[in-house]
TrEMBL record, chains A, B:
Homodimer. Consists of three domains: the N-terminal catalytic domain, the anticodon-binding domain and the C-terminal extension. Belongs to the class-II aminoacyl-tRNA synthetase family. ProS type 3 subfamily. Its main location: cytoplasm. It comes from Parablautia intestinalis. The gene is proS. It catalyses: tRNA(Pro) + L-proline + ATP = L-prolyl-tRNA(Pro) + AMP + diphosphate. One of its GO terms (biological process) is prolyl-tRNA aminoacylation. Pfam families: HGTP_anticodon (PF03129), ProRS-C_1 (PF09180), tRNA-synt_2b (PF00587). It comes from the Bacteria. This is Proline--tRNA ligase.
Length: 476, 476
């Protein structure tokens, strides 16, 4: 049964990228569809990636003074309605609980699509003085948005994420925190996931419901499409005014707090797959890989082979290492290790043992190395570091090679007619123009990058005076 | 504001244990009530304890071959109804989702009260051959049960837990896993939480809805009441038959799997509070304490004091240590550290610095020690280990001293009329008799302990032939 599943090769990326993605997700056993429409089952291989993301990101949060909490998963309707833009943004896509046990509820509640309103309600009671500030809280939880179309990791009715919610005494501090958290996300993506990102601000049209400003990191997938991989919002004092969150400042004045929120979800696993994967399956950056080294014994029934495999495994105790001692054939084990994206494979058979060496194979480049046993630990360490570095370099190169510049409407339209990637172009700043671009070209503004360039004086689409350079693209 | 909250002392345990508990939970800032009825906000100090429980318990799970996954939070009504006893047990206390966005759902769904049905539905599609077994999956998540009465950590409409769900080829293997997980819970309670537990089996009346057998660990709180602190269920093939989970065995026969499930929840934080706390607040066992050592500078404005405090903090880098450098008074900081249950306090002032020593104070016994700077690390290590050990010993002594034996109905009734604790007594094995005891004496069977003793030949209540020795008690 297990053998059968993998023998069918997966669809190639060039043939059908969407099908390739679905194949990888299924065959690397990351996710399974469930009988709960629009919801997914995250299987051990997928969840282990999420656990590593949680552990490493949470460590960076804690170093930045973030404390974890847990808020209720339900939001009473009246609470959701307190901030006007927010309720308009989320009410159409929430799941409503109307009955508790056998009785109808006096007021219906939604399952949280995001928890701004709950944190605000809590902060209103918990913040009184400047001494109670800042509050830098975060929670790891699941949220629900009633999406019509769903795709594994990228869009599902329930997904896992972290959501940070902070309250500050001043607008400056809130702005600083908004940027700090975006930078943590960007650094995490580059350093751990080997995914380069464009940092910037969302346009009015694309910003979060109720936010003053939304910052984003945008990553480019292998097919040239964008994936919004993390966002950080500055709410100013909008929510504070809607919820009445005030504090007595040092000057004895009653003031509204300034707030932020920021989140990264399981969606980012989709980015790992679509940035690094290839036609043999998943390729995991060593930093995030649940298993970094798979030792595969050759002719494992011969005396001494399995013993040596375990011995090497112990030698590599500083890494996340496993021995595949199942009764499958070595070739089979190779494809499984490749499909699952395990960074390094160590092959060890009777002849290798005699020669005092083994073979190491890199998942990303397929390079093979003969390594003496006493060099193994050092080589593994070097190869993992090299692979991590080169995966980021390749992803950066891909991003650069698929980022174009358009100076005229014709150029703008031609690029998107022929290619998929990011296009840098000047924009007038009008939502109507942005709408027209979306409608006519099916591309959206990804962000106004922090690193602005002045490409020309006029909007690439409508010709009016330009205000901002924008990254445009098709997005997941 | 902050100063005001703590100046009011908490209610003493002897005066009103329930109020003492509520006071500790609030003033140690573990939990806050929310405006979502019956749901709690777990604050940073409370959530940090849960994070440590997760980390340490999850480590023990992984060492026992457990893999983490994530299942949807919704259960369609038809799925919940598949196992008869199970739906009867849970349907009256679930939250029902009836609308997605603006539209009524074709079938209503409940928010999971527990996920047996979801795991079964998944296993049905995922298990085909003996090669696919065993499945030893677990998830950390929140669940919802529509309770009428709620109390922080002990009973709330939403709570956090882990739920393990396994599938095995044989009945023996399922039984082994059920016991193995109960033992992991028991060892964790003793070794990490310093809470001794009674291991045993629940009666038919008290077992989990749909289980063949439920095993439990029962802990005794300071007031003599029981807290069920973890359960492990053997489902036999009942769920497998209801859901049709079959596999082809080595002998080529189609067979039903045998299943287990097991869980520990945030309730266990209630046990930590009620087993170890005292009239000054929380007392945390060092193994689980988010902060193990609080360094409190005396006359911190004097030159060199804060510097020395940080220096000592660095020296203690192997422990979870903090310096309280806030502008509160030392006395104030002492009560806060005590209220929060931080195991050790290090006091350091100008005179101590001159003398090259500091004071260490143990939270549980209030013993104070003068320690030379160069002995600090060693002393902290020893004191933490000693405190952990002695907290368990004290809890054991309390459990033993409040466990009684009843040989006659009169004795049985008299003990419970006068005392609160566990009573060991023989039982006929009839649910009707157990019901009568509950009705007339307001005590429940806690478990039939694995370590059976034959106290007499007749049921302590009805006088019929005895089948089992049972622990009886009042319970949270």
């Amino acid at each position: 049964m297990a053998e059968k599943k993998l023998v069918e090769a997966i669809t190639s990326m060039s043939e059908d990228f969407a099908q390739w993605y679905t194949d990888v997700v299924k065959k690397a056993e990351l996710i399974d569809y469930s009988n709960v429409k629009g919801c997914m089952v995250i299987k051990p291989a997928g969840y282990a990636i999420w656990e590593n993301i949680q552990k490493l990101l949470d460590g960076r949060f804690k170093a930045a003074g973030v404390e974890n909490v847990y808020m209720p998963m339900f939001i009473p309707e009246s609470l959701l309605q307190k901030e006007k833009d927010h309720v308009e943004g989320f009410a159409p896509e929430v799941a409503w609980v109307t009955h508790g046990g056998l009785n109808p509820l006096p007021e219906r509640m939604c399952v949280r699509p995001t928890s701004e309103t709950l944190f605000c309600d809590f902060y209103k009671g918990d913040i009184h003085s400047y001494r109670d500030l800042p509050k830098v809280y975060n929670q790891w939880c699941s949220v629900v948005r009633w999406e019509k179309e769903t795709r594994p990791f990228l869009r599902s009715r329930e997904f896992l994420w972290q959501e940070g919610h902070t309250a500050h005494a001043t607008a400056e501090e809130a702005e600083e925190r908004t940027e700090q958290m975006l930078n943590i996300y960007a650094d995490f993506c580059e350093e751990v996931l080997a995914i380069p990102v464009i940092k910037g601000r969302k346009t009015e049209k694309e910003k979060f419901a109720g936010a003053h400003a939304t910052y984003t990191i945008e990553a480019m997938m292998h097919d040239g499409k964008a994936l919004q991989s993390g966002t950080s919002h500055n709410f100013g004092d909008g929510f504070a005014k809607a919820f009445g969150i005030q504090f007595t400042d040092k000057d004895n004045q009653l003031k509204y707090v300034h707030q932020t929120s920021w989140g990264v979800s399981t969606r980012i696993i989709g980015a790992i797959i679509m940035v690094h994967g290839d036609d043999s399956g998943l390729v995991l950056p060593p930093e995030i890989a649940p298993t970094q080294v798979m030792i595969i014994p050759i002719q494992q029934k011969k005396e001494g082979v399995l013993k040596k495999a375990y011995e090497l495994s112990e030698k590599l105790g500083n890494f996340r290492v496993k021995v595949d001692d199942s009764d499958k054939s070595p070739g089979w084990k190779f494809s499984e290790q490749e499909m699952r994206g395990i960074p390094l494979r160590v092959e060890i058979g009777p002849k290798d043992i005699e020669a005092g060496k083994c073979i190491i194979c890199r998942r990303d480049t397929r390079e093979k190395f003969e390594v003496a046993f006493n060099e193994l630990e050092k080589t593994v360490e070097e190869l993992l570091a090299k692979m991590q570095k080169e995966m980021l370099e390749r992803a950066k190169k891909h991003l650069e090679e698929h980022t174009y510049t358009a100076l005229s409407r014709e150029e703008f339209e031609n690029i998107f007619a022929e290619k998929t990637g990011f296009v840098k172009a000047m924009w007038c700043g009008e939502s109507a123009c942005e709408e027209a671009i979306k409608e006519n070209m099916a591309v959206t503004s990804r962000c106004m990058p922090f690193k602005q360039e002045c490409l020309s004086d006029t909007c690439v689409y409508c010709g009016r005076p330009a205000k901002k350079m924008v990254y445009w693209g098709k997005a997941y």
